[in-house]
Structure formats: structure tokens, C-alpha cells
């Protein structure tokens, strides 16, 4: 699970279609997210001759554009600290048929495109990514009698930490908010074997922090892991996501973004009407995901015999 956060961001850049120039050593540093909301009011998208060119301290970080034939989209780009120049590249004149907004890591709107924007510098932005502070005093223990793993840590002294992601053997299993300094995980459904539990602080910008992990051997003779009996497809997905199992009854489904924030929940506790509204098959659920921006998401699937976390990519 080494450098898991860095892997996720790299995958996002590949998926979003941001056109990046040759990589430099500076681009590998930690940085802040910038979110581009791109629209074509006429519904045709932008031709390749139009786009937003991004540089930091004179270094080219790529061109963001709305693909031709796409009426709207969101793109994500990460940039290091420094003076950011956002420039418009176009033909003779970029008009209202090319609309966009730019948000920083804290989801603050920092720029809205004018009615007309000729080629050249749009605006500059002083990008300052706050320091990434790691966990301290991290501890873990395995209680064989209670069949539970207990983790604890000291919350970083940063106003920017948004929460903590919990991983088991490299797979995301849960998220807790920024005020929580401990976590317990039941182990009675796990197969016998070696397990590694890690806690990662989440910031609204990119951090490559050293992992804080606890490793233990769990002895549960006779327990079977059913995660492979639940299918999530297609993956990557564009409009519909299928959750299917031939052995279990799906009781509820939760969607999370890469920051561990819960986006949606479909719950069977008040009947199947919620799931049915998204399409119910004889042995699974079909969920409409066309409204989700492109990126990486986690799905926590609750069944009548336990829960499973799966990852999928939204095109």
C-alpha cells in the first residue's frame, strides 16, 4: 500500500484527460488540487485549439480543455506551491461558448471565465499548500479473545486535516472524521493469516506521508473470505454500475470519494424501493452513476453475511 495516495492521484490525472507536458522533477512534489468545471453552452465541447494553459513558476503543467462533443465535464489537476499562471489559448477569440470555473483545494471559487477571453494571461494565483503533518504516537493491538484490532494515534495539529482513511492489507475499509483518534475493527469474519492495518491522514491537497501501520497474525480457523463472491462491473464504468452476487443479499451500498467522504447511501432497511429506483435485477443491483465526475471511488457493500469494500473508476 506504499504511496497509495500518490497512486490514486496519478490514476485521476490519466482518467480526466488533462493534457500534460513532459514530466519534471518538480512535478513529483506534493501539491494542491485544482478543480476545473468546464462547460460548452452550445453543447459541442471545445475544439483542440481552445483550452486553459497552466504554468507554475514558469514550468508548464499542461492544458485543460473540454473534449469535442462533450457539453460539460469536471477535471482535476494538482499543482505545487508557487505562482500559478492560468492562460487562455484559442483561435481569434474565445467567446461565451467556452465557459469554465476554477476551484482551489478548499473548494473556493477562484476564477470564473469572462464573457469574452482573448488569447493570453487570464489571471495569476499564489498557490501555498500547507504543510502535511503525519500521525504521531501510533499504536495497535490485536485482542484475540474479543477478535478485534484496536488502533490509536494523536491527531495532527493542523486545521486542514479532514479525516483519516483506514486500510487493511492495502484495501480501504473505512473513514473517520478529523476529531477521532482511535479505531476498532472486528476480525471474526477474516481468514487466518497476516494482516496489516494502516491509518492515513487526509488533507484537501496532496501528501506523500510515511505510513503508520500495525501488523498482526489473526487466527480464525474455518473462516472463509467471501469478497470474491461479490462482483462490481463494468470497471471502469460510465453510466451504470452493477453490484452482483449469487450467494448474498445486498442490504445497502455506500459510495465514498478518494478523501473518504460518503457521497451516497442506498439502504434496504426501508424496503427495496430505493434500490429498485436505480434498477433491480434478480441477483444484484444496477445503479445510475452518470452524474458522478470522472475519478476513483470506493463502494462499501453491506450484505446479509458481512461487508465488502470495492474500488471502481468512473469514466
Structure write-up:
The protein has 315 residues and is mainly beta. The chain folds into 3 domains: 4-127, Sandwich (Lipoxygenase-1), CATH 2.60.60; 136-218, Immunoglobulins (Immunoglobulin-like, Sandwich), CATH 2.60.40; 227-314, Immunoglobulin-like. It has 2 helices and 23 strands. The strands form 6 sheets. It has a 4-stranded antiparallel β-sheet. Strands 3-2-5-8 form a 4-stranded antiparallel β-sheet, with no helix packed on it. Strand 9 and strand 10 (148-154) form a beta hairpin. The longest helix is centred in the first third of the chain and has 12 residues, at 4-15. The chain is flat.
Give the rounded overall mean pLDDT.
77
CATH architecture of the largest domain: Sandwich
Number of strands: 23
Write the H/E string, N to C.
Answer: HEEEEEEEEEEEEEEEEEEEHEEEE
Query: Class of the largest domain in CATH?
Result: Mainly Beta
Summarize the structure.
This protein has 2 helices and 23 strands.
Describe the SSE topology.
Blueprint: H1 4-15, E1 32-39, E2 51-56, E3 59-64, E4 72-79, E5 82-89, E6 99-103, E7 109-112, E8 120-127, E9 136-143, E10 148-154, E11 163-168, E12 171-177, E13 182-186, E14 193-202, E15 212-218, E16 230-233, E17 240-245, E18 250-256, E19 262-267, H2 273-276, E20 280-281, E21 284-288, E22 295-303, E23 306-314
Antiparallel strand pairs: 1-4, 1-6, 2-3, 2-5, 5-8, 6-7, 9-10, 10-13, 11-12, 11-14, 14-15, 16-17, 17-21, 18-19, 18-22, 20-21, 22-23
